[in-house]
Structures are given as structure tokens and as C-alpha cells.
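Quick one: C-alpha cells for this chain, please?
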Amino acid sequence: MKLKLVTTTLTTLAVVFATQAQQYQTNIIYYESFSGSATELLNGKVPDVSATGAAWQVGNLLYQNGHWDTYVADSANGQAAWLPFTALPNKLYILECSFLNSQPNWLAVGFFSSYPVNNSGISWTETRWEVRHSNSGYLWMLSRNHGDQPDQQAFLGYGTGNQVTAINGDLVDPNQWVNVKIVLNTGWPNDSGSYTYEYWLNDQLRASGTIATSLVGSIGGVGLSYERSATANSGADIDYFRLSVVPEPNSIALFGILLLGLGYVISRSNF
């Protein structure tokens, strides 16, 4: 009876430690609440949390309160909001963003190359077609409100290469806040060497699969982009932007695993 009690206690402790590890092992790399001024531009501002110390590199139409004015142009053009980022092996990265874009010009969230179209002569603060995810993005998703075309799409990249076919349609209402989550697993938690992705829309998993390590190795940034419109409109609003990482299991998680193992040994020795 005592052995059974010990076994049950150890198992319970193991679950508690494992739960704590899951809750506390997410480290924020970048977090922007967009709670700033409606008249000051986001460019040059350090995010509320910036593990790298880096500041936003943004065009001249995105403000610190998260409102993004639409750039009006007849041909392909747009702006970006960029932060430096390099994906490391054996990590679980979680990119999350909530925004309202009820316009026909798309707003995209995802990863970027280090420079627009890998050209160091172009700045992310410029207004031009190269800075958009459709030209310089990796593992990205877009949303818009376009009556005769899909409202949401996703691509692994580079740019519009490797389209994710499961996300190509009117999947969520663009007239409401859209919550995007992109999960990039670079072999976590056992350094498997296999890289995978997940695309979530409004807390629903929409697509998952493997992604080439060569694509992930070319990632040099993370952020958003906003396409031009041929006619003026009221633009888009961003609620928050967050990039976090779950590193390899720490001592708490390992201790939980050891407790599970010890409980199993005791239970086996009792028979």
C-alpha cells in the first residue's frame, strides 16, 4: 500500500514539474504591444521586449499605435516592418500576431531574408516592391478582404515559392481581428535534424508539414509587410506582435522525467 502511495506521489510530482516546464520555458525574443503614439512612427523604436536589443526597421506609414496607412500606387509596391532573427537548431519558435485588415491590399506576417531580395543596397525602411513578403519572405501568411480572390494564403518561400495549398481561400472573416500563429520547429526537443512548421488561424491549426533546412537557414529576419492599393482606404491595425522560443528541456523537465522513471521502477518492483 505504501509503495503504491509513493508511486502515485512520484507520478503526480512528475506531471507537476512537466507542466511547470511547459509553462515557464517560453522565452520572448520580441514583443510589441503597439500601445504607443498615434502620431509617432514605429521606425527606430525598440519593441517592448527585444532580447537582441534591435529596433524596428519600418517604412514611413506604420505608427506606434499599430495603425498602418495604405500606400497608394498603381503598380506593385509596399512597406515592411523588420527585426533581425536567425533560427538556431533544436528550438521551437512561435510567431504570433493579431491584426485587423478589412482592405483588399494584403497584410502579411512571417519571416524575412536579411535584406530585401538579398540585396544589401535596399533598406527595409524603403517603400518599394522588394520589401514585401511576396518578394522577400519565408514561412509567411497573408490576409486581406478581396471579394473575387482568396482572403488568406500562405507560403514557405522564398517569396511566393512553395505555396501551402491548405491555406488558400476565405478561411476566416477579414472584417474581424485575425490571429495568426506560425510555429517553426528546428528539431526540438531531441535535436532530430528534421524541421517542421505549423500554420494557425484564429486558434485553429490549418496546415503543417516539413520545411527544408536550407530555407530555414536563409532566414535573417521576422516581421510584417503591407501591400499598396490602387485606391485610398483606411489601412490596417495591428494589436500585437510576438516571437518566442521554447529551448531544449531544462533541469525541471528532466527532473520530471526522472521522477516518472523512478515511479515506474518502484511500481515494477512491487509485483
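The chain is about 20% helix and 35% strand.
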